[in-house]
Amino acid sequence: MGVSLKDVALRAGVSAKTVSNVVNNYPHIRPGTRERVQRAIDELGYRPNATARHLRTGRSGIIALAVPELGNPYFADLAAAVIDAAAHHGHTVLLDHTAGLRANETLVSRGFRSHLIDGLILSPIQLENEDLLRRPDGPPLVLLGEREYDAPYDHIAIDNVAAARLAVRHLIDLGRRRIAFVGARRESLRQPAHLRLRGWREEILRAGGTPSDDLVVATDGYDRADGAAAMTRLLALSEPPDAVFAYNDLVALGALRVLAERGLRVPQDVAVVGFDDIEDGRYAGVSLTTVAPDKAAIARLAVDCLITRIEAAPARAPFVPRRILPGHTLVVRESTTGRATAHD
């Protein structure tokens, strides 16, 4: 027999009504009481009856998260962080996979699961501004990720230009002068690859250098194979790079593989910096220096914004959309300095 709300109340030493208020995330609960009830919920493995909740409150207690690719370690980590953040609000997360296709992102953004969910967090790749402006009324939406939009929705983003400049500045400070950028795409100026390329250019110019077009390599995708192919092209240059800033860690790992196969030393011959701080980079043969977005903060802010919109939705009150930029750090490891940081 399943754990009931009364079982939780008995374990926590509170009334069933108090447990219900905590489960439904009512705000006027003392922190100590909320913590005691949540501990009892966790210990007993209590799961609210979503159908009963929906009938009682008009809400399902379910939010959706749609990402381009769950097989990508960055999005897998992000999904786990969103699930944890939602659990603190008593919500369950329904995962969707868009494959980064505009048609799929448009379908998801328009709330095709609106009968199941209270709100949606969407991390788009190809979705255009016009798609969002034409979005019909539906569940509250929060945008997540790196592409920029001028649409009336909260957006938890990454400052791609500043993050790229941080990575390139690190390489310049280490004395590198021919710094390649791997992962450029012919795409919207608002896309993250273009913004990271812009940061690469700006930081080289700031240091008094001249960005060299032959050191910018476009890729078809953002996986290890793409990084390996790009690194092979760069090594064929008459004057190869002495450093590489890769669009993401997967691309960087592909580049590291080719450098190892060619017998080149990392970082002595070529230094490499990635982006995303995935676990594979930490445990690579040469651990990878990387830009680390604060994934926990991104997830927490996205869920907090969405819950705020869900709770405000019945009043249909106007709101000013927010664009929030959580922090990022540079995690320095062996691929640029020959040594790992202490916390690794």
Automatic annotation (TrEMBL):
GO terms for molecular function: DNA-binding transcription factor activity; transcription cis-regulatory region binding. Residues 3-57 form the HTH lacI-type domain. SUPFAM superfamilies: lambda repressor-like DNA-binding domains, Periplasmic binding protein-like I. InterPro entries: HTH_LacI (IPR000843), LacI/GalR-like_sensor (IPR046335), Lambda_DNA-bd_dom_sf (IPR010982), Peripla_BP_I (IPR028082). Keywords: DNA-binding, Transcription, Transcription regulation. PANTHER family: HTH-TYPE TRANSCRIPTIONAL REGULATOR GALS, LACI-RELATED TRANSCRIPTIONAL REPRESSOR. This is LacI family transcriptional regulator. It comes from Streptacidiphilus pinicola.
